[in-house]
Structures are given as C-alpha cells and as structure tokens.
C-alpha cells in the first residue's frame, strides 16, 4: 500500500495559515508565527509568499474555487430535495472552514488591496450561481418563486451567511470573536433554511420539516432576551 504524498511546502503554508487565522484571528498572526508553527525559517516562507497579504490572497482564491465547485449544478438530472440539503451543508461547511474571511472581512477589505478586488467578484459569482440553483429548483417543481423573489432570497441568504459571526459577537453569544464553536455555524444553516420556507412545494416541504427537526431548537433568541444589564 503506497503512502500518501507529503504536502509541498507551499501547500503546508496555506494549510497552517488557514488554521491559525481561524483559531487566532488574521490580525493576531504574523508570518513569523506561521513559520514557527511549520518549523521552517521565515526566509523559506518568503520564498513561496512575499508577505501575509499574498497568503490571504491565495486562500481567498482557494475558497472561491472550492465553493463554486461545490455549488455546481448536476449536468445529467434535475435537482432533488437532497441537493437542497447538500447546498446548505456546503455553504455552512465552507463558512466554518474559512471562517476568518467573513469574521475579519471589513479589516481585510480596508487593509488588503488584492482582497478588496477579489471578494466582491467572489460574492457576485456565488450569488449568480445561487440564482441558477433556485431557478433549477423552480423548474423541478420544488419551489415557487418569481425572479424578483429569487434575487431577494439570495441577497438575504448572503447577508446571513457572511455576517453571522459578527452577529454572534455583537449580540453577546460569543465573548471572543476569534473563537467560534462549530455549533454556532450550524445555527446559521437553520436561519437560512427558514428564509426559503415560504417558497417550498410538495416533497421539498416535507424535507424542510425534517431538516429543521434534525437541526434541533435554537436558543439564540431566548439567550439574547435573557441578557441583563451589568
């Protein structure tokens, strides 16, 4: 049995950078931290990436390519209710895997010129793909929506998805914006499922109920309402 190939240094740098950015926050991590975690010299790191901005740019391209691939439409069949569940799980999984991007997005846009150019294009591509996906659900008889309703739903879903971490932090559900438990990301999935509920038809309605049941109850509103003044 052949052994799996070891990651190239460049790929290891990206892997560890993503891990550290997610765990500590992008602003708290330097290239020296990344090199130390990898056990390589800063000079070796700079051979592959001139600075931290280049690492972030590469991670953004990686995030973009992965997400668009996972949101692709099947070519040989109509969409089913299982596809609907899969798309939501993909988005939530990507949100967790690259959580530093959305958590630190305002800082990254202000401080990183490459990111400032890449992120809006990425957002546009994801929303355009979402438009195709929802139209395919309409064509498959799983949803009833006008073009305007599809557009509004996609924008609302994107707002929830990309601002979820900041909502949790600002509303007191998490005390440190750099430390996010995975359970909170799946609560974002729950909110997104609710947004499309009014447009579901037939089989997709039953799947919707099953999915909500599997996600369990949310204590977000109750915990927010119970917060008391210091």
Care to describe what's here?
- This protein is an all-alpha fold.
- It has a domain of 152 residues: Tetracycline Repressor, domain 2.
- 71% of the residues lie in helices and 0% in strands.
- The longest helix has 27 residues.
- The mean pLDDT is 86.
Mean pLDDT over the residues: 86
Strand composition percent: under 5%
List the helices and strands in order. HHHHHHHHHHHH
Principal-axis shape: globular
How is the main sheet built?
Answer: none
Query: What is the multimeric organization of the chains shown?
Result: single chain
Q: Rg to the nearest angstrom?
A: 20 Å
CATH superfamily of the domain at 74-225: Tetracycline Repressor, domain 2
What percentage of residues falls in helices of 4 or more residues? over 70%
The CATH topology of the domain at 74-225 corresponds to Tetracycline Repressor, domain 2
CATH architecture of the domain at 74-225: Orthogonal Bundle
Number of helices: 12
Distance from N terminus to C terminus (CA atoms, Å) equals: 61 Å
Question: How many strand segments?
Answer: 0
Which regions have little confidence, pLDDT < 50, spanning 5+ residues? none
Please identify the top-level CATH class of the domain at 74-225. Answer: Mainly Alpha
Structural class based on helices, strands and sheet pairing = mainly alpha
């Amino acid at each position: 049995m052949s052994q799996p190939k070891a990651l190239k240094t460049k790929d290891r740098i990206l892997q560890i950078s993503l891990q550290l950015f997610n765990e500590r926050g992008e602003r708290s991590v330097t290239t020296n931290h990344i090199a130390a975690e990898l056990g390589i010299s800063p000079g070796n790191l700079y051979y592959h990436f001139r600075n931290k901005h280049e690492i972030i740019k590469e991670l953004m391209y990686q995030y973009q390519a992965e997400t668009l691939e996972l949101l692709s439409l099947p070519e040989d069949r109509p969409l089913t209710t299982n596809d609907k569940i899969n798309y939501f799980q993909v988005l939530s999984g990507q949100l967790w895997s690259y959580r530093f991007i959305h958590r630190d997005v305002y800082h990254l846009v202000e401080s990183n010129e490459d990111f400032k150019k890449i992120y809006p294009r990425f957002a546009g591509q994801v929303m355009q793909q979402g438009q195709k996906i929802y139209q395919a659900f309409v064509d498959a008889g799983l949803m009833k929506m006008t073009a305007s309703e599809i557009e509004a739903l996609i924008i609302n879903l994107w707002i929830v998805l990309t601002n979820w971490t900041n909502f949790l932090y600002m509303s007191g559900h998490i005390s440190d914006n750099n430390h996010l438990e995975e359970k909170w990301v799946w609560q974002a999935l729950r909110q997104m499922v609710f947004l499309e509920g009014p447009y579901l038809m037939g089989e997709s309605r039953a799947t919707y109920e099953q999915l909500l049941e599997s996600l369990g109850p949310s204590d977000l509103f109750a915990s927010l309402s119970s917060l008391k003044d210091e």
